[in-house]
């Protein structure tokens, strides 16, 4: 029992670094307490920091040991990530809004000829650019929750 306790404590204390190589890298926008925004690819984490690669995805995948920047959780206020399936959600919402004049319109619904494609284009572009906000505010539990969700341990 005592050995199990020591093993659990030592695994929590040791400075682990989890790197992302096999999963698709996510773009993140990190806002720090100095109100500075840092944009980059979420490359991994340590016990108390996120590892950020400030460059292109292509460069990140090519390099064996990319130059990473540490951003400690105590300095992080908000992390924004791209919304999953945002493009499809926006496409559906924009298309349905553009199709409404065809359903309720009178006289041939010529308005829908313009409103449907315009709704598709506007909705998909808005959906593509939506970001999900994760509030950290220097809280270790919120940092762990974000890191566990976005960084898969191998």
Polypeptide structure, described:
It is a single chain. The N terminus is likely disordered. It is built from five helices and seven strands, in the order H-E-E-E-E-H-E-E-H-H-E-H. Strand 2 and strand 3 form a beta hairpin. 43% of the residues lie in helices and 25% in strands. The chain has two domains: 85 residues, SH3 type barrels; 41 residues, no CATH class. With 154 residues, it is of the alpha+beta class. It is elongated.
Give a quick set of tags describing it.
single chain; 154 residues; alpha+beta; SH3 type barrels; 2 domains; seven-stranded antiparallel sheet; 7 strands
pLDDT average, as an integer? Answer: 79
CATH fold call of the largest domain: SH3 type barrels
Q: Largest sheet, if any?
A: 7 strands, antiparallel
Structural class: alpha+beta
Sequence-ordered SSE layout with sheet pairings:
Blueprint: H1 2-13, E1 18-19, E2 27-32, E3 37-45, E4 49-53, H2 57-62, E5 69-72, E6 76-82, H3 86-104, H4 111-128, E7 131-135, H5 140-150
Antiparallel strand pairs: 1-3, 2-3, 2-6, 3-4, 4-5, 6-7
Describe what is shown at a glance.
By secondary structure, this protein is of the alpha+beta class. Helix content is about 45%, strand content about 25%.
